[in-house]
Each structure stands twice: as structure tokens, then as C-alpha cells.
Amino acid sequence: MLIKSAEFVVSNSDVAKCPKSALPEYAFIGRSNVGKSSLINMLTNRKSLAKTSGRPGKTQLINHFLINKNWHLVDLPGYGYARVSKSAKKTFQKFITQYFLNREQVVTAFVLVDLRHNPQPIDLDFMRWLGEKGIPFSIIFTKADKLKPKAIERHVTDYKNILLETWEEMPNYFITSSSKSIGKAAVLEYINYLNEGIKNNFSN
Fold it and tell me: Residue 191, exposed/middle/buried by CB under 10 A (0-12, 13-18, 19+)?
């Protein structure tokens, strides 16, 4: 899929104020400082569609972007470790969960995980929550350029081993690097595949 247009639509912390359209939505979420904004900019061929920051917890709102006039990319706040007040962090968690539970337009979530680190309890807990709520998701491993191929393979295997302790099968996953554009085509083709499936279901 070629992204020809990417437009900012709205930012808010109230799920009720999200766009009223029935366009499919793809939600990107992960721990603070996982490289989410850089990934979104890489996928959309924009330098600053999503604001990047060296300070964790920069994204503090639900951000909707209209892609190719026919689907929404949703940039959600990072969970955990953000340098914000406890009350603000509770607010993040509340509207993140409300978003997933109330937005029927959500096709799937993309949970971003820093490939350099061992599996983190907060990531595993969030994936478990998505699974319990029946919300489809894929894992996007970020920062693959920081590791050698053998190390990438080892870290992914570690993740598989831990996830398969509680999951019947490994969730769908992608290996990416924003600086090297690794995984860009695979992620976009997957979104295109899901969009085509939605279109075909409507036409049948």
C-alpha cells in the first residue's frame, strides 16, 4: 500500500469526541519511549506527523490521523514509566481502556515493543488484557537496527517462549526499524489486507 495522504484530524482524551465516521481504525500503542512516533512518521512518509520527543510520555491524548481518505491511524498514549503525575497516568489508562472497549471502528491494535529488552511485565499484561477483551492485536518489535540478526532472532524467540506459556499461539508480529524503514512494507500491506477484507464483507 502506498500512503498518498496523511492528515491530522483531532486530539482528545474523551472517547465520545473521537471521529463519528465508520472508517476502520488501527491503533498504535506501547510503553513510553518505545519509538511509536518515529514508527508512525516512517509508515506515513512524514517527518513530523506524530511529534517525537526524547522525554517519555509525550503523547498524552488520543490522536486521529486520516490516511488515504479511507482509514484512521490512531496514536494512543504510552503506558507506564511516563514522567507525569499519578493522577494523569490514571487518566491515560482510563481513556485507553475506554477507547478499546467503546470504539467499534477499531480493526486491530499494534502493540509496540522495544526489541532490545527482555519481555516486560507491563507489555505482557497489556497484551493479556487485549486478549481477555477479545481485541485483535499484532506486536510490532521496534529498533531492530540496534541489534545484529542473531540477536533479533534470539529476542523474538524469548518473546515467543514466554507468550506461549499463556497463549495457544504466537500473536502476529512485525520486526521494524524506523531509521532504516525495516518492516514498513509488511505493516502497510497487512493494514491493506485487513481493509480489503472489510470492503469485501460490506459488498457481500
Answer: buried
Tell me the pLDDT band of 148, cut-offs 50, 70 and 90.
Answer: very high
The pTM for the full model equals: 0.90
134-137 — which CB contacts under 8 Å span 24+ positions?
Answer: 135/100, 135/106, 135/108, 135/109, 136/107, 136/108, 136/109, 137/108, 137/109, 137/110, 137/111, 137/171
Candidates 61, 99, 65, 103; CA nearest to 78 is: 61
Helices within the chain (DSSP H only): 36-44, 86-102, 121-132, 149-163, 184-203
pLDDT tens, position by position, 65-108: 999 999 999 999 877 644 555 554 554 477 788 999 999 999 99
